[in-house]
Request: fold
Amino acid sequence: MNEQLICTGCGVKIQTENPEELGFAPASSLEKEVAVCQRCFRLKNYNEIQDVSLTDDDFLKILNELGNKDALIVKIVDIFDFNGSWLPGIQRFAGKNPVLLIGNKADLVPKSVKQRKLIDWMKKESRELGLNPIDVFLVSAAKGHHIKEAAAAIDEYRNGKDVYIVGCTNVGKSTFINRIIKEVTGEGDIITTSHFPGTTLDMIEIPLEDGKAIVDTPGIINHHQMAHYVDKRDLKYITPKKEIKPKVYQLNEQQTLFFGGLARFDYLSGGRRSFPCYIPNEINIHRTKLENADELYKNHAGEMLTPPRREQMDTFPELVRHEFTIKEAKTDVVFSGLGWVTVNDVGAIIAAFVPKGVHVMLRRSLI
Ligand code: GDP
Reply:
């Protein structure tokens, strides 16, 4: 391609190499007269929002712009990866604008857990993370649960203003917006794209009846999420589609659990206890004696302990050990983007291992 083509939809430079980057269009599509990037094509023809990769600087620009708007900010998190999908500093970025918090993927949470309890938990956690949301909702974008209520609340709280939807990648932001589009506008060719002032980023606008818009911002990448270390073909194992059923392990001191080859849990001391593991059903849990654990990982990561895949092992980050003494009854040990293990008893000493770069943390038990 000699001459630089520009997408007639959003104005980005068209490229034909990387389907995940901004401006991608398949080379064959460019033989037609009007050049559009794949993202605009899908948006226009199927009302479908697609993710693109951006640099961290771009994301920062987006966040920094939010405070200059007079708008309602809707922040989406993945309830199964609450902290991993949190956008730190969102209250500061939002400025004086109210923030409505939406927890998505409620369908993954065991059915025995009460909605109300989970919403209260989200409120408490967000306050501790420095956010004072105007309201909190729990939805399943995939299943369509509570989308109507969320849409109605957005309409009420926006109070005649624009709405900016933010979230990190993989929280289900696109799925949510695609649902909302149907909810607020019915179907139809109503989406337009617009440029974000000061950047080359295109925002996606869904016009509302009163001349305002719902604006989709690009999904922000949280680098400490497990998803970035898993082969694309294996993402399905850590992006569960069905209710997570906890697997309960009775452990003696000095026993180890491996979650595939992605994480490891050592029970060091505290007597024989049971440990509910909220890990996607598709991930194999392997129990062994602590004294054999290092050797087992060395010899079997990438095959028996998988994902990661064997061919990834050369570049897969080493597992890093984090030791904790449990101070509160019912504490979750969270492996960011993978799941958690609940430790019921005060005084237990455990070690959690995750690939270097991935977060591990303790929190008040979610369930
Ligand atoms: P985005 O990157 O935030 O735009 O997220 P997507 O909408 O592309 O969704 C990311 C992944 O989460 C996909 O595999 C979706 O199928 C899945 N997903 C989205 N919403 C839900 C939900 O409500 N429940 C479940 N279980 N999965 C969901």
